[in-house]
Design a protein that fits this description.
By secondary structure, this protein is an alpha+beta fold. Among the domains are: 75 residues, no CATH class; 221 residues, no CATH class. The protein is 32% helix and 21% strand. The strands form seven sheets. It has a six-stranded antiparallel beta sheet with strand order 8-9-10-11-5-12, with helices on both faces. A hairpin with a 2-residue loop joins strand 9 and strand 10. The longest helix has 25 residues. It is globular and about 80 Å long. It starts with a helix and ends in an 11-residue tail after the last strand.
Length: 624
């Protein structure tokens, strides 16, 4: 049948862009590529108890296709209005979007003034999924074509801050330490609440023009999605409301807000239209929620369970954060779901270079894989180094670089359920680790700096970066790494002081180079250190002010060692188990390859003694 289609004029043109191996069911008028077929699998499994393996002839898939085309079920995101208008679910979604805009008094219909420019508009469609893969809702968004705007005419400033992932992890660690519940709320059509300072006109939405006034335009009173200044307008509005409510904006994190009433405290973190909040007083929490819902149209999501791609499991004394759903989707996207898992994402001592002699790889595929892995690093410090390593070759990747990237995917396959486990500990203290790998880059011989910080039971920040200058010795490389770590420690200390967790005494920073430690304590200027750039002596100033305390640590058990180089399997597993762990529910591990208990060291207590660690036991229904 495929050969008959290929013989036609239309078939030759179609199969020129889509190889026959990627075409399924050529009789169907909408051709399905392999990636689309994976979406179809989700649909079939959702609406039928039959497994796809029991349907070798594809009859079930064909039935689902026909059902989707002949009913109002939508499987794929429409690419244009003409596709969406044939489905009732998308028509209803568009009507809800326009109702939200009208309710918010976002615009008014008028004639376009002479000499004024009009910004176009279009519909964008997206199916929203829950953390378990089921469909949450069909979302239609009317967006302005902001790329046609001109600076100084349609907009001025555009910057708007968002919450740092480090801040979110710090708050989760603090919540687990104090036995607080973390709540999640979503602002419906957030950008529509921002007031505009400029005069902006947009076209009427396609398919919903006012009869008899088709040539009129809408004058915006408030921002619309797609406008360049929309994020800033929304942030200005919500920032003003928070301060009016009595919340103080953090000086070190512009999206973190703090409110104190006596001995009680309320913490709010904002990421565009998603916000999480927690506090020591349930009454203060409920008061904040009630006032916010009276001011904006909000969606109360209850306990924080799914935030920015992170799955959050809460119980009374523990919080577990992972990205297992994202990891599965990523593996499925790149066809690695059935691959063989490996125990180490990068071989011991493996180094990469630009001109390795291997054939060139697809730039699009390589960038897509590396970009996906970068997002996974939000809860997976164990892959931070190797992801940072392969990201240096985004412009001109080779097959060897692609092989290393796929090796990371194989490692993720065996550790899908791993994540960060925060719990209550006796010593809630900030502790850091620093390390470097001297001259490890084969292209320019620059070194790699690595550092990480733990607060309580698990890490909250980690970093693996290539240094900006060439170090002439291992001491210089370690000194530069210590400076970067001390700057991060200073920011964390200031942030903790603002939220009521002031660190008494200097922050301990571990390093495995005695020369660098001595150089930070003593103002020695000799032939080996006189050329150091001035900024790298920042660590010496922090030590003199008693804010940083340096200690020597054996390189084999230095947690930062995993952020600078590939290590042997035994050392890698030992260091990894001090960072991430699998999730256990009712004593059963999600990842069958992991044991129920293992001998490892919690990062903040790593230098004191070895303990027996039991993974988090999380109930089915988190308690508030």
């Amino acid at each position: 049948m495929i050969q008959q289609v290929m013989n036609t004029k239309r078939g030759k043109r179609h199969f020129q862009n889509h190889p026959p191996s990627q075409i399924l069911d050529p009789n169907f008028h909408q051709r399905l590529t392999r990636s689309q077929f994976h979406e179809m699998e989700k649909f079939v499994k959702q609406f039928s108890n039959m497994e796809l393996d029991e349907d070798p002839k594809g009859e079930m898939v064909n039935y689902a296709l026909c059902a989707a085309q002949n009913t109002n079920i939508s499987i794929f995101d429409p690419s244009c209005y003409e596709e969406a208008c044939t489905k009732n679910v998308w028509v209803k979604a568009m009507q809800e979007e326009l109702h939200s805009i009208d309710k918010n008094d976002t615009w008014e219909l008028c004639e376009l003034p002479k000499g004024k420019r009009c910004v176009g508009s279009k519909w964008v469609y997206k199916i929203k999924y829950n953390s378990d893969g089921t469909t949450e809702r069909h979302k239609a968004r009317l967006v302005a074509k902001g790329f046609t705007q001109k600076h100084g005419v349609d907009f001025e400033e555009t910057f708007a801050p968002v919450a740092r992932q480090e801040t979110v992890r710090l708050l989760l660690s603090m919540a687990a330490q104090n036995h607080w519940s973390v709540y999640h709320m979503d602002v419906k059509s957030a950008f529509l609440n921002g007031y505009l300072d400029e005069e902006v006109f947009v076209q009427q939405p396609q398919g919903f023009q006012v009869q008899g006034k088709e040539h009129n335009v809408y004058k915006l009173k408030k921002a619309l999605y797609g406008l360049k200044q929309a994020p800033r307008a929304w942030y200005t509005r919500i920032d003003g409301y928070f301060q009016k409510f009595g919340l103080m904006r953090s000086k070190n994190e512009p999206t973190l807000y703090i409110k104190r009433e006596g001995n009680q405290i309320l913490l709010v973190s904002l990421y565009v239209d998603d916000l999480i909040y927690m506090g020591s007083d349930p009454i203060l929490n409920n008061k904040f929620k009630t006032n916010l819902m009276n001011e904006f149209e909000m969606k109360d999501l209850g306990l924080m369970r799914y935030f920015l791609g992170m799955e959050v499991h809460q119980c009374q004394e523990e919080i577990f954060v992972c990205q297992s759903k994202y990891a599965r989707d990523m593996l499925s996207k790149y066809g690695m779901m059935n691959c063989t898992a490996v125990h180490n994402p990068v071989a011991h001592g493996e180094l990469l270079c630009k001109d390795d002699g291997a054939p060139k790889a697809s730039v699009i595929e390589f960038r897509s894989i590396v970009g996906s892995l970068m997002f996974l690093c939000n809860t997976r410090p164990d892959i931070q180094f190797v992801v940072s390593l392969v990201s240096r070759y985004m412009n001109d990747p080779s097959m060897l670089h692609l092989k290393v990237a796929k090796c990371i995917l194989r490692y993720v396959k065996g550790t899908i359920g791993f994540g960060l486990h925060y719990s209550h500990v006796d010593k809630f203290k900030l502790v850091g680790f620093s390390d470097s790998d001297w001259g490890s880059n084969l292209d320019d011989r620059k070194s790699t700096s690595g550092n990480c910080f733990s607060l309580g039971s698990r890490m909250i920040t980690w970093s693996s970066k290539k240094q900006s200058t060439v170090a002439l010795s291992s001491c210089e490389a370690e000194y530069i790494a210590l400076t970067a770590a001390s700057a991060q420690a200073l920011w964390l200390r200031k942030l903790l002081d603002e939220i009521g967790e002031k660190q008494h005494g200097p922050t301990t920073l571990f390093c495995d180079n005695q020369s660098a430690i001595q150089l930070a304590h003593n103002p020695i200027h000799h032939s080996r250190s006189k050329h150091f750039q001035l900024k790298y002596h920042f660590i010496r100033d922090m030590v003199e002010k008693d804010q940083i305390e340096l200690h020597y640590y054996n390189t084999k058990i230095n947690l930062a060692d995993i952020f600078t180089k590939g290590v042997v399997k035994a050392q890698y597993v030992m260091l990894r188990e001090s960072m991430v762990s699998p999730l256990c529910i009712k004593g059963e591990n999600v990842d069958n390859s992991a044991s129920n208990s293992r001998k490892l060291s919690l990062s903040c207590q790593f230098w004191e003694k070895l303990i027996i660690f039991r993974p988090a036991s999380v109930a089915n229904q988190p308690t508030s």
